[in-house]
Specification:
- This protein has one helix at residues 32-46, and strands spanning 3-10, 16-21, 26-29, 55-61.
- With 68 residues, the protein is α+β, with helices and mostly antiparallel strands.
- It has one domain.
- The chain has a 4-stranded mixed beta sheet, covered by helices on one side.
- It is elongated and about 50 Å long.
């Protein structure tokens, strides 16, 4: 696998969550820096050595509500 993308969202209770698109990987952390490391760790645990993606793409989504 060449690249694995993650959908990153702010968690309602604080921090961030990340869900892989195309693999059963989910992780969370208090900050984006901690989340990046948690994603790397989760990917290492999920894939056999030598089968890991070469790159990880983070799609950071931010929800915002504005008054009409």
């Amino acid at each position: 696998m060449f690249e694995l993308a993650f959908e990153v969202r702010e968690a309602p209770e604080g921090g961030f969550t990340a869900r892989a698109m195309g693999a059963s990987i989910f992780t969370e952390a208090d900050s984006l820096e901690e989340l990046r490391e948690a994603i790397r760790d989760a990917v290492r645990c999920h894939f056999d050595p030598g089968n890991e993606p070469r790159s990880l793409r983070l799609l950071i989504l931010r929800e915002e509500t504005i008054a009409a």
